[in-house]
Design goal:
The complex is a heterodimer of chains A (397) and B (425). Chain A is an alpha/beta fold. Chain A is 47% helix and 11% strand. Chain A has a four-stranded parallel sheet with strand order 2-1-3-4, sandwiched between helices. Chain A has a four-stranded parallel sheet with strand order 6-5-7-8, with helices on both faces. In chain A, α10 links the parallel β5 and β6. Chain A starts with 18 loop residues before the first helix and ends with a helix. By secondary structure, chain B is α/β, with parallel strands linked by helices. Chain B contains 17 helices and ten strands. In chain B, α7 packs across α13, α8 runs parallel beside α10 and α9 packs antiparallel against α10. Chains A and B meet through α5, β4, α6, α13 and α14 of A and α6, β6, α7, α13 and α15 of B.
Chain lengths: 397, 425
Amino acid sequence: MNLNTPLYFGHALPVDASLEQILNACRELLCDATFPTLRLWQERGGKVLGHFQVYLPEEIAHAAGMLTVKLGCTTGITGQPGSHFGSYLCAVVKQVFSLVDEGRLKPDLFVVPSICDAARNLPAIWSRNFNTPCRMLYLPQNSASPAAARYLQQEYAGFAAVVSEVTGRPLDLEALRRSAAVYNRNRHLLRVLQVLKSCEPWKLALDECYLLTAVGSLLPPEEHNHLLEQVIPQLAVRQCQQQDKIRVVLCGCFCEQPPLGMLEAIARSCHVVSDDLLIGLRWLTDDLDVQGDPLAALAHAYCSSSSWSPVQHDPHRQTADLLLQQVKQQGAQAVIVTAPKMCEPGLDELVPALAALTKAGIPSCVCEFEQGMTSFELVELQVETFAENILYSGELP
Amino acid sequence: MTFPAIRAKIEATSLLESWSERLDQLAQQQRTAAYAFVMGSCAELLAAFEIPLFLPEINCLQTAISGTAQGLLQHAEEQGYPSDICNYLKADVGLHLQGRRLPHKRLPAPCLAIATTACNTYIKWAEVWQRLYDMPLFVFDIPGTRNPGHPSQPGDPAFAADLAYMIEQLRDLISLCERITGRRLDPDRLSHALDCTNRMSRDFNAILKLNRQEPACFDAVRQGGAYLGVFNAFRGTDAGVRYFSNALEELQQIRQRCLREPVAEAPFRLLFAGLPCYPLYSRFIRMFSTQGGLFVSSTYLQFASGGGCMGYQYDTKRPVESFAEGLLLTTREAMDSMFLAGDRLFEAQAACRADGVVFHGVKSCRTVSTGLADARLALQSRSSIPTLLLESDMMDRRLISPAQMQNRIDAFFETLRLRRKAGAP
């Protein structure tokens, strides 16, 4: 079968679907533990690369004809990792292992960026339990070093070699340039979605934006682009009544994703105008140069024009300062800091982030979460109270 | 099974006390030190620049043993530090927030921090100091093994790429040290420091090999911890060389004595995987030793020495390049000994003729503990050797349940005794 025929948009979902139909279909796909798009891709003879959060240069796998899946984006799916892990580990590490262990997900290659101490253990655990190849990707932590971009280019070449072993297709620079163009388009469309959410947040709630973004982790980028190209004009003319909600920045979701129910609960009280949900999909902030050496361009972009998260040390940028900058740029009134349970990098940033916000006089609230949580009443009450306090504080004598 | 109080253990205590006193003096004189971590401390480079070295992990574990850690943890938690982060980091933050004062010593402020990527928490930890003191922070990015069990080797193009990155970073770090001290690197001083570490590492490696044979002549958790402390705090120094030379000589004598006068009942030879339980340090070891258990080997010595115990020898004729290569190889070895414990323990158990393996996972160190439960399952699938998995913490007493721990250890030894009685291999 042809791998170019649609997996989803135009297959399970009509190409002329309405906005509501698309949103419902996105929700179904993200909650489907059978991973229908990946299954269909593999049935057609395609290979799947599964990767851990936060960022991976998917272009390299795409150029070799692989479908990449960012693991840990699916919602409402928990697994039983049994006795393989202690109780003190984050849900996303356990979920990724369980999905494969239970046979629900069968990637042909697994890649783990070295984002945290728990993730760095995964390749060894993987190699002890599964036969499919696994590789660690060491993204530079000393990106200030003049040697970092050159090192990263070599690292990407090593990654490309593993992809080539799995697919049987050697690295084709022309194909990589074409893939870079496809991903440039994807990142552009995601940025448009973010701008829309910031400028007219009543037209695109937090959970809706998440659905439209997160399905990109389960689809070929071309198809995700088609979906976004269909949705964005519909959103632009969407008739929604403006609501009296506070404008907030949501942070702390760079790796483990809050469950959809929690995002819905937040959206009922707030206009989230900026967030770091699935930040890896929009990690590169500028278009890649598709004319020269694409591996060099990818490496250069990572070191010089990328987003930020607690898993990436940047000597020139403090995450707390960046958060304040984001609040200012977005005209936000407050910040919701999500704290994923057992996520060390995220929790380590909690104190400086809250201290900086307090010093700047920006209200904040901390919402603890776990991917597998199913009850959202407390979060909803917490956020609602927080929002009301800000909303009505101006009316106090 | 216990050994007489051996000289090296006493000397280690004395040396580590002198290290603490030196830090206290620096603090009193308002002088500063470089803060670094045991995995990739760059001690030899700092020694070449005569920049005093402070290792916060050693200080933290000392507070856990002495019982002062709990107050530090509580102080940090009161400032908002969450319960689910590394307790070394948290206790250290508590210490800084209360003015770097402990009951009997003070600590100097940092003039520089070096954090390698051997542990990602190192970076977050050093970022805390940077926020507190605004001193230079050098993140030394040391790539690890990409394909588990198949590290690149000198001569491979992939290794050459990593090494080139290491050398560039090392040159940057040298420039930074030159700016801080106001003087150029003296390659002879670096060569001397590397030569000292070569000799320490060679003897440390020989010490560890002694326990592979029967009879074992030291406990790898108790005495091993002392060797480790000296190795980290005194690497690159003449004092460190003397210590390891004497320790090796003493252990060889002990071994001869053990051969001449064998004990009535041979101890249960145990492997230890993970981190020690520092808040109950002696009691934890006694829970095993009183039942005839002896730790003949420990993964802790491998990773917490920054891979230094592997015996790597620097080429002192080309100190800068060799230092970079050694740092890459030894730190990578340290990382592999944490991540690949499950794969290596099978061979280690055979090499040491161990009777059982004890896994000790600690909540607050994901680097070491994430893979331990799975490593145990992997070992069980390949061997019938009894294993014991304990979970507690290396700093926080609230996470330790001694009675429950004792029950499980009792049951473990019951199995060991039954197997020995039945003549199990």
